Amino acid sequence: MKNLRISALALITIISFSSCSSDDTAKIVNEEEVITTVTATFTPEAGGTPIVLTSRDLDGDGPNAPIVTVSGNFVTGTAYNGTITFLNELETPAGNITEEIFEEGHEHQIFYSQTGLGTFTYNDTDVNGKPIGLKFKYTANANAATGNLTVTLRHEPNKDAEGVADGIITNAGGSTDAEVVFPVTIE
Amino acid sequence: MRFYYILLSVFMAGTLCAYSQNTISGNVSTNKNTPLDGAHIHIEQLHAISSTDGSYEIHNVPSGEHRIVVSYIGFKTIDTLVTVHERLRFDVKLKPESTQLQEVVLTENNAIPKNTIREERLKTETIEKYSNASLGDALKEVAGVYSLKTGNTIVKPVINGLHSSRVPVISNNVRLEDQQWGTEHAPNLDINAAGKISVIKGANALQYGGDAIGGLVLVEPVSVLKDTLFGKTIINAASNGRGGSISSSLHKGAEQGWAWNAAGTFKYFGDRQSPDYVLSNTGNRENNFAGDLKYIGDSYDISAYYSLYDAEIGIAKAMHIGSISDLVRAINSKQPAVIEPFTYDIDAPKQDVVHHLAKMNFNKRFSNNSSLSVQYAFQHNSRKEYDIRRGVYTDKPALDLTLATHSAQADWKKEIEALTIKTGASFSTQDNTANPDTGIRPLIPNYKKTDAGAYGIASYAFSDSFTGEAGLRYDYSHMLASKYYQKSRWTSLGYDGVYDKFIVADAGTQLLTAPEFTFHNISASLGIRKHLNSHYQLLANAGLAMRNPNPSELFSDGLHHSTGTIELGNLGIQKEESYKLSTTLLKTHGTFTFEATPYLNMINNFIYQSPTDIEYTTRGAFPVYEYKQTDALMAGLDLHTNWKISKHWQHTFSGAYIYGQDITNDLPLIEMPPLNLVNSIRYNQDNWHNFFAEIRNESVFTQKRYPNNNFTVQLPVNGEFVDTLVDISTPPKGYSLFHFSTGMTFKTFANTGLAINFSVLNIFNHAYRDYLNRQRLYTDDIGRNFQLQLKFNY
Question: How much is the average pLDDT of A32-60?
Fold first, then answer.
């Protein structure tokens, strides 16, 4: 009996001590999935200086709000070739999430929602022939206008739902990975 | 409101007071003086079951000669005649069935249960009924216990409105350390390995800890004190989820020598279904094992125990949202965003949980009515939560925590005539490791915690009918964490200049910190048990309990995907202090029995989550919920009644009402269980192979008292910002469900049997949502479910 108790005690001691030796200092986690920066670049079809719309939130899900910048105004009736990139600038060098979206294009779609700013059409397709939205065409409204352009990146949307392939977000479902709003002026 | 409760109690007491007669009480034990828990004592129509310490009581025994039968499985039944003319003590020593000797000790004496704490125990039949469900589901059978759910497989017990860290679960005398701080972390144990499950409301059972502000759940394995080998297999099949479970256990009992138990459970379910749609990704799997080996000596026993709980639980896909726009869509559409065809596959979001518990225990009984118990336990809890992620992260958990806990304790008990003294000490160390490879800043940081405590409880029987108990406990706790804070968050939480002492290093955009906390807590209890007459007992308890803030309340820092909220802990959170008064009026004999428990719980520094702000990120706007503290008052009544209408018919009722108020801000408390009533009518016919049929109605009222945390946020609609109300507060409408169950038991051979049970839950396939189900904003609860259960005893 005594031996049993001693061995039990010894076992307890060994387990207790062995568990105390690990180093408990936290390791830094640089969030690698977070989208900090959304950049939409509009290059006039006829050539000229591109207009760049940027939303940058360098603390990710932290308390600071994204900073939105728009490099210039659009010109009435003009057609633009658009591209959009998503970066994680918490990493050095910055993580390029655009590539992931392209590779998993069938699981992603980017929506450009606005009223009275003109027309957006998709200029790319995923493996199923549905739009992704990394490339698009924008034709500015024929008359001067101001308004907001909302760019939404949806993960796992239902691309077969009504209107989704035409860029109407209403029935898209899925979960929102990015949703930024740019104030836009057409003159 | 409370006035009506008092009136109700008085009314019941008044109408049901019957003629007073004799009481028989005593102890049932083995011939080695080991108390027998659960022995049946019958005197004609009256019967009782012995409690943990072997004691029993039967009231209302008319004067005269009676036949008394005492039985316990594996022991020789005692069948004898006694003459009753006043209070009678009838102690019984049962011999194992293999021997023929009978020993009956008859003394004219009084016996009083010395425990002033009410333990509400689930019947074995109830435990078996929930064989393919969970502990939280089974506990709901106790009046005053509700459940906090995430979907239908993650179920946490809510005792008198309180849950999680406020309701410790004690499994086989070990406090379960399974990250219970999270509202979507269910107790990591298999209900099939439990021989006994009971609930203690409030913190008065100080031997288990001083912080059970809500109450305690005690789960104990099967203990067999006889030389035998028997087993049980339960097979369940359910239509909803198109799955089932199989659970087998083998028990080798011994009065002396080696005894062992082994139990295994396997569960497999696919997507559950609401009345109108498939709840996509709500399947679950469980593989559990529990076993122990025990050597029983003359005056001592030594045992080793191990249990494994391994679960994979799907979380409804509809609950995953990326932004407030998604949340608004989910709330307003009244339909889940994702409805896919039925599948058994479990995809992200999901939880993978593995819990190991190993313990060694040594008990020694001394000749001077005292006993000592020494125990060491090790627990290893691993929790991986998977979210819907992109690219290389798809198969990586979003949260990966490992919690290791060592605990040791010693308990000593001594009886000196009417006085019982219990005292003990405990020590534990805990280590939490958050895997940094998830690529997401962990919700709970690395930490090391050391706890030590000591208690003393004395109970004294002042007279035949009056027992008092007092207890005191001291607890020490020290915690050292290691966590990176974003600098912007550190500043926005107001930590600059306040917690500089915790900063270890500056890592660019983040700060490495080492927050450290020390707590000294006192808890105390005072209780009485009074036999008012042969029918009625009154228990009254007053308790002081203190609970330290848990890691989630201190450190939470980030976006919670299923709720679409940014949750922030606070390093300044203080411990909670609860002052609870409760009384229980018990009527334990006669054809109508009841138990009424009114209570009042004042909690200072009550920790709760409150919306404080809206923050903007690349994903859009999110409400910020911060842990705050207030003074809270909770008052309520739990009522349970049982009416044996006739030999065949029986009615049972359970009901609970709770009033919870934040008295500092004069607001209702959030997530208080609504008024709920359960009525069941059961028909029994013992002659038809123990046939029974039961109809059960479960009615949950609409919770009208809730804090309005609704907020307005500007959401882009077609490019324009529109003020949108986000209704996260309004509780869903009340509901009423009907369930049916029936069954029969067949004896195949002398010692083997087969029981067949069939049940239909939610007969009318009613669509409903429950206020305390975190899925309620997104989907309906589950619909009709046909269940078939086969139980083999061998």
Answer: 92
